């Protein structure tokens, strides 16, 4: 479990150092005090950019679905600052959700259900690999698909 106060300096290497020390499979949960549309915030902050950079790794999954994980008791504003991150092998077997009960806290309870057998219908959030893109392959793929595109079908 991680707690990062707002005033704490934090960058992607800090989180990578933590992850590299963990035995696999692992789950990291906690209050990251960060914002990114990737996990349900309307904007992104510097800490969110750092966490997104770590999430570009092929062996890491963000379990959050975009559902708020905190409510500000003073304003009633919802946010998603509590994150759940796991190794890919474990994350593919976890159903992540929040509970509707708040229990007199600004923290919204998170429920992680572990599937006892692999469920091929479970989908993980779409993740784009932006490191080292193969632009030649991408261009060829786009050209090929455009050649075979016949336009939108008309709806009756």
TrEMBL record:
Keywords: Nucleotidyltransferase, RNA-directed DNA polymerase, Transferase. One of its GO terms (molecular function) is RNA-directed DNA polymerase activity. Residues 1-110 form the Endonuclease/exonuclease/phosphatase domain. It comes from the Eukaryota. InterPro entries: Endo/exonu/phosph_ase_sf (IPR036691), Endo/exonuclease/phosphatase (IPR005135). It holds the Pfam family Exo_endo_phos_2. This is RNA-directed DNA polymerase from mobile element jockey. It comes from Sipha flava.
């Amino acid at each position: 479990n991680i707690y990062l106060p707002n005033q704490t300096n934090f960058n992607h290497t800090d989180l990578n150092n933590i992850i590299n020390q963990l035995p696999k499979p692992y789950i990291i949960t906690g209050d990251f005090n960060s914002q990114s549309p990737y996990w349900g915030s309307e904007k992104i902050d510097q800490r969110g950019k750092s966490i997104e950079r770590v999430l570009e790794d092929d062996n890491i999954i963000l379990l959050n679905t975009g559902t708020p994980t905190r409510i500000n008791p003073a304003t009633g504003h919802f946010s998603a600052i509590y994150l759940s991150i796991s190794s890919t092998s474990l994350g593919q077997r976890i159903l992540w959700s929040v509970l509707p009960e708040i229990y007199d806290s600004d923290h919204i309870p998170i429920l992680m259900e572990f599937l006892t057998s692999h469920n091929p219908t479970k989908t993980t959030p779409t993740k784009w690999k932006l490191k080292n893109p193969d632009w030649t392959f991408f261009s060829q793929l786009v050209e090929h698909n455009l050649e075979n595109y016949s336009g939108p079908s008309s709806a009756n």
